[in-house]
Amino acid sequence: MTAPARRPVLPPRLAVIYVQHSPDRYPGALETLEGYLERFWYCQPYLLVVDNAAESTPYEMAGPGRGFVGGDNGSREFSGWQRGLDVLAAQDVPWDMLLMTNEAFLAPGPSFLSRYPTLDDLLRWHRYGLAAGRVDFLPRRVSVLGRRISSWICTNAIFVPRSAIEAIGSVVSVTEEDLDRLLPSVCPRQISTTHTVRLSRAEAEAGARYEWPLGADGNVLVAIESAHPFVPRDIGFGSDARTLGLYVRQLKAGSRSLAEAVSTTGWYPDGKGGWTGPRFGATFAGVSGRLQLAVWVPPPMMATAPEHFEVVVTIVRDPFLAEAPISAEYRLLLLEWVSLRWRQQFALGPRTWVLFRDKVRAILNEAILSSRLTDAGFELVPYGSERFY
User: Fold this and answer.
1) What CA–CA distance (Å, rounded) separates 97 from 131?
2) Under DSSP, is residue 10 helix (H, G, I), strand (E, B) or coil?
3) Is the bond leading into 382 cis (omega within 30 degrees of zero)?
4) Buried-most residue among 147, 155, 162, 251 (CB within 10 A)?
């Protein structure tokens, strides 16, 4: 008896939804993506550009295997991707795997799309129903809106099988009503207090200590910054004290190499005999009493320290509603990320409140999308072993 002929395994057809809003801020991003897509010729990639700044623009063909449509930016890139999915369905575009990406996909650093995925990757992800991209993890599990979050795929470039999209429905996970359960529509009064410390060289070299009243119990973020190099050695509330330690280790003045110069806080030589550094910060849950801060300038930095300089200390209160369905850990992680860690960090206040709400919604949409995919039975996997950012 002759064995039946094996059917060839065909590459999955690839649809790409690229969302943009301010392309001038990310010059060359779309052209770079198009270059990457040339490697996937065997998947017959179809590229749909969704412009979230052009809501009234109807769908139009923009060339072979390419379309363009406007989006409303209601949920930033997530509503843009959903708009793209609706267009793919309306235009009856054939696809088996979806790549969702946006104009900021190169902002964190070089994209894994420059080398991944391979054909074997795409075949495996499609066959076994895997969602793939850069997988990030939290240091501890948190909760929000009834969901437990510990890991997620960064949505600046995520591959998802069609079966997964069909299983979860909309890729928008957090509605405006959900956001209203977490954050007030208007910035709370007294969201932050700022204290300015003026130090002399002698005080900075010897180490100086300061205290301020918190004013009310609760969760807080403390941000510390200066135009001149210094080290916040200790920071804390009462018995909850943190020894931040000596941050600058074996740095070469004038070096431009981050690999040689970067410290645990990020101070590094600016190449001109001076130093460059970020805002420092720490978060505290359920604290009360007085904030204590010790400031010191290490000898390698003292040579460029002025006779007097200022250190600005800002105490930011937990902005989430008291009854909001979000754990204390996640409240502080979100506040810390937006205020201190994000590449576009900003101080929280009335003028940035709408931006803060929008950013929190985008972060939660990303995390909860991964949670929904997992709940639907689709495993989250990394694109490969090489680290890109």
Assistant:
1) 10
2) coil
3) no
4) 155
Residue whose C-alpha is closest to residue 228's, from 201, 206, 209: 201
Q: What is the rounded distance in angstroms from the CA atom of residue 79 to the CA atom of residue 84?
A: 9
d(CA 288, CA 317): 12
- Look at the chain and count its residues: 389
Task: Give percent above pLDDT 70 in the chain.
Answer: 83
Phi, psi for residue 134 in degrees, rounded to 5: -85, 120
Spatial separation of the C-alpha atoms in residues 168 and 298, rounded to whole Å: 54
> Residue 203's CB: how many other CB atoms inside 10 A?
15
C-alpha 356/C-alpha 362 separation (Å) is 10
Q: Which of 203, 301, 174 has its CA nearest to residue 247?
A: 301
Cβ–Cβ < 8 Å for 15, 45: yes
Total-model pTM: 0.84
CA terminus-to-terminus distance, the chain: 55
Q: What is the pLDDT of residues 9-36, one digit of tens each?
A: 789 999 999 999 999 999 999 999 999 9
As a whole number of angstroms, the distance between CA 146 and CA 375 comes to: 13
Say whether 25 sits in a helix, a strand or coil: helix
Which residue blocks in the chain are alpha helix, DSSP H? Answer: 29-37, 77-90, 119-128, 162-168, 176-182, 201-206, 258-261, 299-302, 328-336, 353-375
- Please write down the HEC assignment for all residues of 160-205: EEHHHHHHHCCCCCCCHHHHHHHCCCCCCCCCEEEEEEEEEHHHHH
pLDDT for 30-69, tens place per residue?
Answer: 999 999 999 999 999 999 999 999 999 999 999 899 999 9
Which tokens go with 282? 């720490």
Which of 186, 183, 165, 215 shows the shortest CA–CA distance to 315? 215
Task: Give residue for tokens 């300061």.
Answer: 210
Q: 232 forms bridges with which residues in the sheet?
A: 295
Contacts of 139 (CB under 8 A, 6+ apart): none
Contact 277, 268 (CB under 8 A): yes
